[in-house]
Specification:
It is a single chain. This protein is an alpha/beta fold and 255 residues long. It has a single domain (12-246), classed as Rossmann fold, CATH 3.40.50.720. Helices cover 46% and strands 15% of the residues. The chain has eight helices and seven strands, in the order E-H-E-H-E-H-E-H-E-H-E-H-H-H-E. It has helices spanning 21-32, 44-56, 71-85, 109-137, 159-179, 197-202, 205-213, 223-234, and strands at 12-16, 36-41, 60-65, 90-93, 140-145, 184-191, 245-248. Strands 3-2-1-4-5-6-7 form a seven-stranded parallel beta sheet, sandwiched between helices. The longest helix is centred in the middle third of the chain and has 29 residues, at 109-137. The radius of gyration is 17 Å and the shape is globular. The protein binds NADP nicotinamide-adenine-dinucleotide phosphate (NAP). Residues 16-17, 19-23, 41-43, 66-69, 94-97, 118, 122, 145, 147, 191, 193-194, 196-199 line the site of NADP nicotinamide-adenine-dinucleotide phosphate.
């Protein structure tokens, strides 16, 4: 992580898709800055290991198996968090992504539904489960992981993924308007290609180099490039910032 110091002591951060990648990086950083981190994922082994790693560094972390596309699983998870921790200060709707690069003609209904559910319905279910607690507190931060693929088209992308991420940016604006009166902010990050294991497996090293070369900074993103922005959006300094998407892609999409 970077050298900027954040302080989330006494706060509860809930991170979906926290077993690996950006979610794991964010969970480690929130816990490192004093928050009690709840790591939610469907990959039990990797996510328990991620939580253990945080506890090994004297951080507070719990893993909960939660499928964000399943409303029962989400309700039970958030019920448990609120009864255990008593509050939720930060919700990072991070779980998402796609695993197969198909064209529209190649995409069957099952793939469409799965990718839309993982990237958009899950965000709706988790936000809906957290919002009553945030309203009661009259405070809270919701941070959504969108994507440049939801803002613009610069190369081919998964059709349901781009459609879902456009929905994530729309939901960010909608929820910001709903929740502003309760002092709750809702913002999104739109990462460019970031070197997580899933993305590295999807693209060849040549493709990664080519994508990196398309940005003024000449490289693809690293997990740390995203985590700093996530922490800033959750910090007190970002309190007058809502309904926005921060586009973190090395300048590849400069608007
Ligand atoms: N990396 C990038 O280049 C990039 C660029 C733009 C936006 N983003 C967005 O940033 C976020 C994180 O990306 P990442 O690359 O760090 O992802 P990742 O490495 O694939 O990690 C995502 C985690 O979420 C889990 N997950 C999947 N479906 C789930 C579900 N239904 N319920 C709970 N957990 C679930 C995954 O488990 P399984 O592995 O078992 O599926 C995985 O552990 C995603 O929303 C992604 O779309 C990433």
């Amino acid at each position: 992580m970077g050298t900027t110091k954040f302080d989330f002591s006494g706060q509860v951060a809930v991170i979906t898709g926290a077993a690996v990648g950006i979610g794991k990086g964010a969970a480690e950083a929130f816990a490192g800055a004093g928050a009690r981190a709840y790591l939610l994922d469907i990959d039990d082994e990797k996510c328990e290991k991620a939580a253990e790693g945080i506890r090994g560094q004297s951080g507070e972390a719990s893993f909960i198996h939660c499928d964000i596309t399943d409303s029962k699983s989400v309700q039970e998870t958030f019920g448990r968090i609120v009864s255990e921790a008593g509050r939720i200060d930060i919700l990072l709707n991070n779980a998402g992504g796609f695993k197969t690069q198909l064209t529209t003609a190649e995409t069957d209904e099952e793939e469409w539904d799965q990718v839309i559910d993982r990237n958009l319905k899950g965000l709706f279910l988790c936000s809906r489960a957290a919002i009553p607690t945030l309203i009661k507190q009259k405070s809270g931060r919701i941070i959504n992981m969108g994507s440049v693929a939801g803002l613009a088209s610069m190369t081919r992308s998964s059709p349901p993924y781009s459609a879902a991420k456009a929905g994530v940016h729309a939901m960010t604006r909608v929820m910001a308007f709903e929740l502003g009166e309760h002092s709750i902010t809702v913002n999104a990050l739109a990462p460019g290609t970031t070197a997580t294991d899933r993305v590295v497996a999807l693209r060849s090293p040549e493709q990664m180099k080519q994508i990196g070369a398309m940005s003024p900074l000449g490289r693809i993103g690293e997990v740390e490039d995203m985590v700093g922005w996530i922490l800033f959006l959750a910090s007190p300094e970002a309190g007058y910032f809502t309904g926005q998407t921060v586009s973190v892609n090395g300048g590849r999409l400069a608007v």
